[in-house]
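Appendix B.2, paired examples.
Example (i):
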Amino acid sequence: MPAGHLHLPKRFPFEPGLPDPSRTPEILQFKVWLLGISPLVWRRVQVRASMTLRELHGVIQVAMGWEGIHLFQFTLRARRFGSRELAARTPDVPLSELRLRSGTRFRYEYDLNVSWEHEVRLGSRHQAAPHKSYPICLDGD
């Protein structure tokens, strides 16, 4: 070996034959609850961090049983993202770009005439489970 060169053994960041964790999608777990209604109505969902706010809107629509025919907006750190008619920012921003931390809360409003307000809270972040499909609704009441 020439002087000045080190020979380091090859290292694998993961065991051969197992999925590369650096390529495993990050999953965000949110709790969504409807405000101002009793009894409490809530859902716990898991989505990929690469999902956009527009796609999260779709997940919430399905999880909460809404029809998806009204205007919507998310309010996060005094910025509004939502339907074009509301002059809000585009909701086509990936969740991963919003720099959400565990415990971050934001608003989701649907049907602004009736104003169904939801609070959305990021509970945890983890790597996708192998052979599991996302998004998924884990729980609710």
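Example (ii):
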Amino acid sequence: MAAQHLRSGLQAMDIRLDETQQQQLLTYLELLRKWNRAYNLTAVREPLEMVSRHLLDSLAVLPRVAELAQPGRPVLDVGTGPGLPGIPLAIALPEQPFVLLDSNGKKTRFLFQVQLAMKLDTIRIAQARIETFRMETAPSLIISRAFASLQQFVEQTRPLWSSDPELRLLAMKGEYPADELAALPVGWQVAAQTRLEVPQLDAERHLIELVRNGQ
């Protein structure tokens, strides 16, 4: 049932993943369900709801991430939790390096297990706070899903974007964050905003892209 749910959702979003990639997504979901029973990694527990709220929701940004990411420069997933959206995106973009960052030890332990079990060699997992995290290779993109307010997202990633004026921040949000946009730090502006359509999910979803405006 979960496999059919995933296939129909991908088709509705016009996302083409082969059978191996779809099976990888389901394997990841099964590992998440297994670990969730002991470690409470996510409040979503019903399998079909997990397909919609975790897999399809993460993959809704795939076209934009694929367009903006640069070969050889990782996409940084800040506050990744149990690997969302980083794991589904890494499965969908097998040549693109990803760094999955979270300060929670039990969540990063789960991610190491996923990486080992699924042989996901293009991802790096880091347990650290974003304010003190440094990268050997500068990211081509920073993404977050329900990580913090837009203001906090900008301010806490300062060490990573301060030397790269072109670096773009992508924030996955639920309802349109009008108040957060009004509180953006000086020097930042919205480059694009997209309402995302996630099949089988009766909730608003938006992608907000932030860039520096030179001030």
